[in-house]
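Journal club side-thread
Mid-discussion, someone asked how the predicted structure for our own chain would compare to the paper's figures. Pasting it here so we can look after the session.
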Amino acid sequence: MTSKVGVIGLGAMGHGMAGSLRRHGCQVHVCDVRSEVAQAFAAEGGVACASPADLAAQCQVIVSVVVNAAQTETALFGPDGCAAAMAPGSVFVMCSTVDPNWSMALEARLAERGILYIDAPISGGAAKAASGQMTMMTAARPEAYAAVGDLLDAMAAKVYRLGDRAGAGSKVKIINQLLAGVHIAAAAEAMALGLREGVDAHALYEVITHSAGNSWMFENRMAHVLSGDYTPLSAVDIFVKDLGLVLDVARASKFPLPLSSTAHQMFMQASTAGFAREDDSAVIKIFPGIELPQKP
């Protein structure tokens, strides 16, 4: 296993992934736009870096866990970006949810610099990232896989190898996000109807989570609603972005996605109503005439 690994982005997922790498014996260098977050990780046994370029000068493998393609571009090619500082043969592991075509183009751009690339979006949530139990959907050239050794397995319980070129990982993640977004929207709609009809929310949750109508998203996200806690583990605007990507991909091939379109509009409505940075379960707040449980 490569001893020095860099992680850019210490959000809900990145922080847990960096911790998993450290537990597996790596010297983990980290960089985040919030310098205090990187310093806090360093205090626990990592190495804080001032910029992506500083991190790249010290690490052969860089794992990027930023929000989107624009932030990835900045981390790679912006001022103090890591691409210019990465040695030939280095590996860039991209874990964001992005347009598959953009990911394929990035592989070609990095190849011109002699940098290997792994298209590796992730799923599972912060708790699974912290315990090394998340899922990673990857696609890469064989030499990129060979170079990372056990690092992917150190971060994820399931590492799916979906192709020998970038793009396949991002396509599968897009489909996962289609289902995740639709399921959250459907769960919110169901709970909202129950509340409107005067059903006890906790009783409804108990019945549904033990019945055929249950989904992982209903069980997970409606627990947030019951507790009245909308602290963002995955924010409303994440699904504005991700379902937007889903629709962009489908639009390019003129493929109809009626459920995805409706769910996207629901998250858009929640975002413009002021809930953009709340937990994605806050999409339930768009429904009128319901009294939501309050945080104790």
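Post-session note: The longest strand covers residues 134-140.
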